[in-house]
Design brief:
It contains eight helices and five strands, in the order βαβαααβαβααβα. It has 166 residues and is α/β, with parallel strands linked by helices.
């Protein structure tokens, strides 16, 4: 099976949406952002869904949206929590190369100025560093390609990923 999609995975704040838009232009592919698809389908912002329905329900809703994606030759930016769903990851892996945008924790921490309104799937008692430490091995495990994004400009990251696909 030709894996025509490029799927970006990684922590909130890693730049998946930003890199995704520019990468899609560079590769001349359409762009899909799963966070936006979730918001469109349920008519609420991510944080509203989490506040109203809770984390478990949000993860089910996100999984449903991702598993319903049937596209070829796209760049797809995923929500940081998609990594918790084996069905979603397996569905994406079917026709996609998963690219992990890896960033050091201090850079994630600096970029995420307001984690309470951003729609991050995180139990209230869990710190951001605990979330980072929990998710990082999952991203590493499922990634086909790992791009170290620390101390790099966005154009550099996009060029590095593009080079793997052209």
């Amino acid at each position: 099976m030709n894996k025509s999609n490029v799927v970006l995975i990684g922590m909130p704040g890693a730049g998946k949406s930003t890199v995704g838009v520019l990468l899609a232009k560079a590769l001349r592919k359409p762009f899909v952002d799963t966070d936006l698809l979730v918001q469109q389908k349920y008519g609420m912002f991510l944080q509203e869904i989490i506040d109203k329905h809770g984390i478990e329900k949000f993860l089910q809703m996100e999984e449903r949206v991702v598993v319903d994606i049937e596209v070829k030759d796209h760049v797809i930016a995923t929500g940081g929590s998609v990594i918790y769903s084996n069905s979603a990851i397996n569905h994406l892996k079917r026709d996609s190369t998963l690219v992990y945008l890896k960033l050091r924790f201090d850079e994630i921490d600096r970029r995420l100025t307001d984690i309470t309104s951003r729609g991050i799937v995180k139990e209230n008692d869990k710190t951001l560093v605990e979330l980072y430490n929990e998710r990082q091995p999952l991203y590493e495990k499922h990634a086909d390609i790992v791009i170290n994004c620390s101390n790099k400009h966005i154009e550099e990251i996009v060029s590095e990923i593009k080079a793997k696909f052209t």
